[in-house]
């Protein structure tokens, strides 16, 4: 079931994810619902091919190396596709947006996949590998995702205060 | 880390020293923005400015650095950390995972053992650690250097019983 309402596809930090989005996949995505395709990364040599392809597909591509706050961009998105960084994941979940996390173990230096997999198991987001991204997008049921209730520091701080002998 | 700091009662934890790795460009600005925001809330410019210091320290090992050169850089990091600990003499240390915290905690712990200082060390493992501890976490846990060791997933608490699980910070 494709979310026909989705109009904006926001891809975050796709040094990893973009390498999986060859022309074929981009074409496929645009066939469904993409009007605006935002990219966030560091490599100029990655930007050109994507922009070249998107020209044919009626995709708008925005790219930036660093944005102090991506919250506004996320708010405008109907779907976010991101790498497995905990910051990206929680910022998107906090804003209540559907999220597909692309886990690319070849390029990751940390074990960041653990977080994405756990949250996927709890149905807060969808997990994909670069090779399976297309199927995931085709088969996704975003309405089945459970809203994520953010955690808070108060319980930890209470224990810290208790340990130090402060009144809780 | 900032989740913890914003929740703390500032008058109980003052002055505050924020320490980040030399090659980390993002963490200290976040802390600086927050500390600046405190000035507006409380209005007493003089007091608040003195309550926060920001410093950077050498990392033991950069991501991808060879382990052989890491011996020398770790030594440098340890010396730098020891110097900071002796200068600051913190009563409380909060750390959240990067390798930068190991020399600091080790120095503070050493002073404790020698009876030359007393720091309560609180370690909060990264939320990205669901099933396995980070190397920093593992070291601090096994060597029992932290007074309280927090994990953010119940699976980790089961695996490491001396750790505490009090929910997720994010």
Summarize the structure in words:
The complex is a heterodimer of chains A (168) and B (170). Chain A is 39% helix and 15% strand. Chain A has helices at residues 23-32, 44-57, 71-76, 86-94, 113-121, 133-139, 154-164; strands at residues 8-12, 36-40, 60-64, 79-82, 99-102, 126-128. With 168 residues, chain A is of the alpha/beta class. The N and C termini of chain A lie far apart (50 Å). In chain A, helix 1 (23-32) packs across helix 2. By secondary structure, chain B is of the alpha/beta class. In chain B, 45% of the residues lie in helices and 16% in strands. Chain B contains seven helices and six strands; from the N terminus they run αβααβαβαβαβαβ. Chain B has helices at 2-7, 27-42, 45-50, 67-88, 101-113, 135-142, 154-159; strands at residues 16-21, 52-57, 92-95, 120-124, 148-151, 164-165. In chain B, strands 3-4-5-6 form a four-stranded parallel β-sheet. In chain B, strands 1-2 form a two-stranded parallel ribbon. In chain B, strand 4 (120-124), helix 6 (135-142) and strand 5 (148-151) form a beta-alpha-beta unit. The longest helix of chain B has 22 residues, at 67-88. In chain B, 28% of the residues are buried. The model of chain B has no long low-confidence stretch (mean pLDDT 89). Chains A and B meet through helix 4, helix 5 and helix 7 of A and helix 1 and strand 4 of B.
Distance separating the two termini of chain A: 50 Å
Give the largest interface. Answer: A-B, 26 and 31 residues
Rg from alpha-carbon coordinates of chain A? 18 Å
Low-confidence regions of chain B: none
Which percent band covers the strand fraction of chain B? 15-25%
- Helical percent range of chain A? 25-40%
Reported CATH architecture of chain A: 3-Layer(aba) Sandwich
Largest sheet data of chain B:
4 strands, parallel
Number of domains of chain B: 1
Oligomeric organization of the protein chains: heterodimer
Classify the helix fraction of chain B into a percent range.
40-55%
Query: How far from one another are the termini of chain B?
Result: 10 Å
Protein name (chain A): Glycosyl transferase family 28 C-terminal domain-containing protein
InterPro entries (chain A): Glyco_trans_28_C (IPR007235), UDP-GlcNAc_transferase (IPR052474)
Pfam families (chain A): Glyco_tran_28_C
GO molecular function (chain A): hexosyltransferase activity
């Amino acid at each position: 079931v494709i979310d026909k309402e989705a109009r904006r596809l926001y891809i975050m930090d796709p040094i990893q994810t973009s390498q999986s989005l060859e022309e074929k996949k981009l074409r496929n995505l645009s066939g469904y619902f993409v009007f605006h395709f935002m990219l966030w990364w560091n490599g100029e040599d990655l930007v050109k091919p994507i922009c070249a392809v998107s020209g044919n597909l009626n995709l708008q591509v925005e790219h930036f190396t660093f944005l102090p706050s991506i919250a506004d961009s996320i708010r405008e998105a109907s779907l976010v596709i991101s790498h497995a960084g905990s910051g990206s994941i929680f910022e998107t979940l906090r804003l209540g947006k559907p999220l597909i996390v692309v886990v690319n173990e070849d390029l990751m230096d940390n074990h960041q996949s653990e977080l994405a997999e756990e949250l996927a198991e709890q149905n807060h987001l969808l997990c994909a590998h670069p090779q399976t991204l297309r199927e995931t997008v085709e088969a996704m049921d975003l309405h089945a995702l459970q809203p994520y209730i953010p955690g808070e520091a108060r319980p930890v701080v209470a224990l810290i205060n208790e340990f130090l002998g402060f009144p809780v | 880390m900032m989740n913890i700091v914003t929740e703390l009662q500032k008058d109980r934890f003052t002055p505050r020293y924020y320490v980040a790795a030399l090659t980390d460009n993002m963490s200290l600005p976040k802390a600086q923005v927050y500390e600046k925001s405190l000035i507006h809330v409380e209005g007493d410019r003089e007091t608040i400015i003195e309550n926060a210091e920001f410093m950077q320290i050498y990392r033991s090992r950069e991501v991808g650095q060879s382990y052989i050169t890491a011996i020398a850089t770790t030594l440098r990091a340890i010396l730098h950390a020891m110097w900071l600990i002796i200068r600051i003499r913190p009563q409380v240390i909060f750390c959240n995972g990067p390798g930068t915290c190991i020399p600091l905690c080790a120095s503070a712990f050493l002073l404790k053992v020698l009876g030359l200082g007393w720091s309560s060390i609180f370690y909060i493992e990264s939320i990205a650690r669901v099933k396995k501890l980070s190397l920093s976490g593992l070291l601090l846990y096994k060597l029992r250097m932290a007074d309280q060791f927090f994990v953010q997933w119940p699976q980790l608490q089961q695996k490491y019983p001396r750790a505490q699980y009090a929910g997720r910070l994010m």
